Amino acid sequence: MNSVTCRDFQDAGRYKTKLMYQMLRGSNPKVLWRKLFFGNLVKPRVVFTLWMTCQSILQIKDRLQRFGIVIDGLCVYCSLQESYNHLFFECQVIKNIWKQMMN
Fold first, then answer.
1. Rounded to whole angstroms, how far apart are CA atoms 42 and 60?
2. For residues 27 and 43, what is the distance between their CA atoms, to the nearest angstrom?
3. Cα 70 to Cα 72: distance, rounded to the nearest angstrom
4. What are the tens digits of pLDDT across the range 8-19?
5. Which intervals hold domain Reverse transcriptase zinc-binding (predicted)?
6. Most CB within 10 Å of its CB: which of 8, 13, 25, 86?
7. Most distant CA pair in the chain: distance in Å?
């Protein structure tokens, strides 16, 4: 990284935070699930849980089992191996719960 000075973030003598943000951010692409978080009216803890899920860092049993924290990696609802896909998309018991909640 080149030597950066405050003048590099000035435009017509005024400091521009946006220029510094763009320099720090670099040219990384925006993630597809970004719009789920902004303008969302749900509680902050729900947004945080969703963010953890999108980052694959939610503490579900298969992840805890890899760290040696839990021995049993089975879903508490249907006794199949718990994973992100199973927990959010494949577990029939959870699908029925969501269906009942949506009705």
1. 22
2. 31
3. 6
4. 666 666 777 777
5. 15-98
6. 86
7. 64
